[in-house]
Every structure is written in structure tokens, then in C-alpha cells.
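Give me the fold.
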Amino acid sequence: MNSVPASQKQTLATNYLDFTAQSTSGWAQQYLPDLMEKEAEVFGPRTISGFLNKVGAEESMTSDQVVWSEQGRLHLSYKASVTDNNGTIAGGTAADGGELTITSDIDGNTANAANHGIRVNDTIIVAGAAGVRKCIVREVHATDASIGVEVYGFADLSVFTNNDVVTVLVYGSEFAKATSYNNAAAVASDTRGANEPDFKTFSNKPIIMKDYYEVSGSDASRIGWVEVSTEMGQSGYLWYLKAESDTRARFTDYMEMAMLEAEVGVPGTDDVDNFLGLTGADTAVARTGTEGLFQAISVRGNVTSGVTGVNAATDLAEFDAILAEFDKQGAIEEYMMFVNRSTSLAMDDMLASMNSYGAGGTSYGVFDNDEDMALNLGFSGFRRGSYDFYKSDFRYLNDKATRGGINDAAGSEAIRGVMIPAGVSTVYDQQMGKNLKRPFLHVRFRASATDDRRMKTWTTGSVGAATSALDAMQLHFLTERCLVVQGANNFMLMK
């Protein structure tokens, strides 16, 4: 008997014992063989779903896309180049201690005269490899992103060389007594221009997933030799129960795997849109695919290649580098880590080398400070710096038939784990028109008063309750869903 799930819709001959075959002709004898009726579960629990249930939530949606906004950074910090270390900005009206050209904000987004927030009389820190200087902004160019500065305690910015890349931080302002503001040209004015907060908006769209199983009316009542048990708890000698259960379990896993692995198509670059009949402009609704967790973190979050098990000291240094990156972002205090076996063992070795950290978890705040609750869910906790981490093996990354097998072939593109912040974020939901608190990671599924497409199943055919003249039972599965990854800058993908 072939116990490996097959992709064919019909019952296969390999699922049954053939009395006429030479290898099994002994079954036609008068002697009863010692038959082990129970199917051996040689792959253990084969399903991998449950990850999103642990770290996220589910919520219905009624639109073709979900749109949300996220807060920008509060403080003004930029990357700049030293255009002239002791000159006047082009078109300037006064001598300056130096000229800087703002190139991007601290996160790498392009800056220009219209969107950087530096104003005349702002006090700034200019830092580069050659040194650090405190300056006051004397002039802001109206048509490009250059600014003229005077340097506290120095005549100019000659500590830097022209074209040096520097970091600029606004830390305050200074005005003379009995003065108003100065405009961009350093001319007295009653206004100086107000800074508006950044508005970051993101969107994702659901995908429709379907699957199907069919068994003929005759085979639905055909008794087999092997007693099968299903992931749903059913058991018996009807082989179609096994096949139907495998189809259902596989589809349930697909619902989660798609939320992890899915990527957004690019019309005009790939041909997925042509295949699906969605040709047209590259809009949020018309595009194919959906943004899964791995793509969201790769594009908007953080990626590390550290903690590979080289040795405990190296792994610890690389782990501390991860903490330093979290410090630069939202500094969420609690993280859940879902990692493959090799990364889990590397962390165990790293912690074991530090006795005070390796002897059990120190904090279980996300589990109501209940150590038993954390351990019962498969987590082990530890604290490093001001962060609490809860580590769990991720079966999806280990199983050879899922990401484990892909990782074996993927080389440097293998995914070893993911760090997900615990807790909730506050975002403005444009569909609902108000601020809401939601988990950083949650699934949106399509639903209305008439149709719930979270996990929809229905049966057609003439087996059981007859719905058509077809002498078969057809079982259909459908879902329409997408993943919302809020605050991806707080996530870490381990490659």
C-alpha cells in the first residue's frame, strides 16, 4: 500500500491490495495473515499551521484592499554631503561657515527642498568620520536641498572635506532677543514655515485560494484493508476519508503558507497578470499576488545573517548587533522568535555559555508572567539588554516537505527564522476612519453578512445530500485573505 498522499483526484490502484498480483497472491489462501490494520504515522504531525494563531489575529474586511498608515519618526535626522566646507550656498545672501546638501532622511528616503524639515535658526549636529560640529542654520536654499550654516566655536566646516557624507540631527533652535522669525533667505519674518508630520501609507490585497477533492459514489462506499486516521480525528476503513482529510489539512496549511511566502506581482514585468486575466495598470487592486510576511520584512523591515552557530562569542556579538538595530527602530521590549533547528541550537549554545542567562527564562510578561504557560506553548524565554525574547522551533522551517527542503537548496537565500514583536500597534485604518490598536501581525479575510470567506467549504454531487446528478462527491475549499504587517521596521528576518 502507498501511504504517501497523492495529488490525483481519484482513488489510486496503489492504495489497495491486489489479490491477483504475485506479491500479494498469498491473500487468496485459506490462512489468515497477521495484518497490522493501523496506518503508521511515519512523518509525525504533518500540518504546520498555527504560527499565525500564536502571534496574530484575524479580522474581516469588505474591500478589495486594506490600507493603513503608520507614524513617521518624530525627530528630524538626515544624511547629507558637504558641498562646501567654508562657502556660501548658491544664490545665498550672506557668508556662511559651510554648505550642506541634504540627500535623504535617516531611513534612506530621498530628500529635497520641499520635504526636508530644516529651517533657519535651527541648531544641528553635523557628524562624520572626520569629527562632530554643532551648527546653526543661517540659510535654506529655496529650490534645492542645500543649507548654509555657521559653526559654534569654529570659523567653518573645514574639519570635513568636500563631498564627505555626514549625518545631520536637528536638536533645537536659537534666536536673538526681540526678534521674530527668519524666512529661508534669512530675512526677518513673522513666520518660518511649519513642519507637517510624515504620512506613511501602506496597502495589501487579498488573494483567492481554492482546492477540490472528488471521489466517485462507488469508491465512497468501498472498504479497504487499512484503518486510516485523519488529522480531523476521523478513523475507519474508507480510504476516501484519508484522501479528503489530507486535502483539507493541506489546504489549511496553504492558507498559512501563502501568508508567509506570497509576493506581489509586477504587471509588465511578469506575466502572472496575463494568465489570471488581470491586465491593466499596476494599481493596488489590479496587481497580482499579495505581500506575505517574508516579503514585507525583506522590503520594509530588517534582515540579518548573524547567529549561525560559528561559536558562542561570535553569535552573542551578532545577537547584540540585532539588539542595536532594534534600538534604532521602535525598541519593542518583547519579541517572539520562530527559528529552524540549527538556529535554535546555536542560540541554546550561546545562552549556555552565559550561566546567568542560560538557566531558564527570566521574564514571561507576554504570557502573564507565567513560566508554565510559556513552556507549554513551546517557548523558552531569556532576556538580553532591555529585551525579552521567547524562542520556539518553527516546524515549517524544518520539515523537508515544506521550507526545510527549500532551505537546503536555497543557500544564502535560506530563511532560518523570524523575530516578531509582541503586543499591538496604533494605526489609522482608512476604511474605518479611526485609530485602532491591532497586533503587529494579523490576517484580513473577506466576509460580509451574506458570505464568509475565511475558510469556506461546501459539497456537491449525489453522494449523501444530492445536489446534482453527478455520481460523485465533490468537496470544495475556498478562502480570500491577506496579511497585514504593521511596523515592519520592528521585525527581523534571519537568513
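The first helix runs from residue 51 to 55.
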